[in-house]
Amino acid sequence: MDAMDANAPARGHRRTAAPGPHRTAFCTIVPPHVLDKLSHAEDASLADPARRTLEHDALQRTRRRITTVRGIPAARAAAPSDKPRRTIYDAQHKTTLPGSKVRGEGDQAGADASVNRAYDGLGATFELFLKAYGRRSVDDSGLPLNASVHYSEDYNNAFWDGEQMVFGDGDGEVFLDFTIPIDVMAHELTHGVTQYTANLEYFGQSGALNESMSDVFGSLVKQHALGQSAEEADWLIGAGLLTERVTGVALRSLKAPGTAYDDDVLGKDPQPGTMDDYVRTSRDNGGVHINSGIPNHAFYLAATALGGHAWERAGQIWYDVLTGGDLASDAEFADFAQLTVAAAHARYGEGEEQAAVREAWTQVGITDLRAHASAR
């Protein structure tokens, strides 16, 4: 993988994403490059589950592309409400979705910890988007939140398939149950929010922005649920997911991209934190899980510079851009950065918010920050 020239010109703001069918890219929390590295381990107990997960995910991506081309019927949503409508299913280690219903909205917690965690995580995500941004569910129209747990055998991933959340139990060797980290659930559900708003293409820089939006709001859901300030947060994605045998703390770090893990089997976290180390690759849809470290770090820098609760000012600016209608579906980092500067000015004026956002992008190597005139 070669580093891209950091001085290469970034495209300016281009077309506004036109209304149309929502893309439903198959989005997983564990990147293909991590599973690929694991699949080459000498220990079969590590390699075999990773290989099966890779094969499964590749098939699902192909099916999703075919379905997207054919068109997916719009999901029926309930009337917008301030209450979530959650349904949790047990896939019983099979791959037929959704599985058997085990808990509905308002039902008491049962003995299955995975079911309870999924139910609570969906609720925490709904609550952050509602209380912080006035958004009612993924589509802002009361879309029911469905999730399936205990998916497949030793499945080392979790994903949003365009309609629902799905969680594997992990192999117990490298990964634990994927319902454990609340930010994993929030990350995947935010792919749904992006699907219904900016509809960012899942390739290259727009795909990395898609992934970054999920990491940003995944972290914000965890911070909101824990009542943490920007200074108190760990800024990790997937903390608690790795087993004790892995040398690492999480899948990704917004605070310090490239430091989440450094393991003999998994390899070293490849995320860059600035454009100096931008990775050009044909893998992983053009490195969407890798280069997302750059906008991730920009958000961390802006949020910690402003202090307080990160979901308030910094999160509001990012949300304004994601949902405002001016972000093109093929946007690059510079496009998004320009719009965040404009959004900060539109909401807060020429104050510390705009200065913090501008400085954050400058620190990660995005310096073309002319605010787009039409940004609201």
What's the short version?
The protein is an alpha+beta fold and about 375 residues long. The protein contains ten helices and twelve strands.
Which descriptors would you attach to this protein?
single chain, 376 residues, alpha+beta, six-stranded mixed β-sheet, two-stranded antiparallel ribbon, 10 helices, 40% helix, 9% strand, globular, disordered N terminus, disordered C terminus
β-strand percent reads: 5-15%
- Main sheet attributes: strand count, strand direction, barrel closure: 6 strands, mixed
The global form is globular
* Helix-strand makeup class: alpha+beta
Total of DSSP H or I helical runs spanning 4+ residues: 10
SSE run: EEHHEEHEEEHHEEEEEHHHHH
* Helical content class: 40-55%
Give the N-terminus to C-terminus distance in angstroms. 38 Å
Uncertain runs: 1-22, 66-78, 372-376
Strand order of the largest sheet: 2-6-7-5-3-4
By DSSP, the count of extended strands is 12
On the 0-100 scale, what is the average pLDDT?
A: 89
Q: Roughly how many Å is the radius of gyration? A: 19 Å
